[in-house]
Amino acid sequence: MLPDIFLPDITDLVIEDNEPVDNIQSAKQQRLLVEPLYTSKPIDPPFLADANVGLFYAVEQPPLVPDAFLSVGVTAPEDWSKKENRSYFFWQFGKAPDVAIEVVSNRRGNELGSKVQDYARIGITYYAVFDPLRQLQAEMGDQLLQVFALTQGRYEPLESNWLESVQLGLTLWQGEFETCQGTWLRWSDRNGNVVLTGAERAEQAEAQARQAEAQTRQAEAEARQAEAQKRQAEIRANEAEARSQALADRLRAMGIDPDTL
Predict the structure, then answer these.
(1) How distant, in Å, are the alpha carbons of 14, 200, 202 from that of 197?
(2) pTM (predicted TM-score)
C-alpha cells in the first residue's frame, strides 16, 4: 500500500498579484519564449512552458517568478477552477522546472545577484539571464546572454548555451517579431536553428507552397515547350519525307529507279 502524500494547505496563499509585466519588450520576449515550444514542438511532450507564473517551492516562502520557464515531463492540469492548478507548485508537479529565464529590464531584479542563489537552491537545472537593454553591462560586459547549469548545487557558466538534458539551446536572434525589430532570445536546435513561431511556420509553409507552385508552372512550361519541339520535329520530318517522295516520283517519271541510286 502506497503511503499518503502530504499536500499542504494553500487556502490563504496568494498566487496572483495582478501586477503588470515590466514593459512591452519584456511581454513580447516572454511570448517568443513560450509560443514556439507549443506550435513547433521541438521536444517531445509532455512539457509545460509559461511566463510570469509563480514557482512555489515551499508554502512558507514567497514564490520565484521567472520571466519564462520550461519543465519537461509534466502535464498541465485541466481544471483551472482549482487553486492548486493555477501556479507551479513543486509538490503538485513532483519536480522543479528544468529552465528558468530572466529578462533584465532594470538593475533592481538581482538577476546576477540573489536570484542566482535562489534558483540554484530550489534545483532549477538551467538558469539564463538575457540583458537586451544592457542594464548589467558592468557584470556581463559585452554579453547579452549568460546561461548557467547547476553543478553540485552551484551554477557554472555554459559556453555553448546548449541545454543537454532538455535537448534545446538558447541563442540570440536579430530580426522582427510582432512588427518590432530587435535582438531577441530564442530557443534553438543543436545546429543553432531557431525554433519557429506559428507565424514563421505558416510563412515558411506558404513560401514552400509558392516555390512548389512555381516549380510546377516551370515544369508545365518545359513540358509544353518539349511538346511544341516534338510537333515541330514531326512537321519537319513529314516535310522531308514529302520532298523525298516528290523527288522519287520525278525520278521514276524520268525512267530512273530511285531505289538503285
Answers:
(1) 33, 5, 9
(2) 0.80
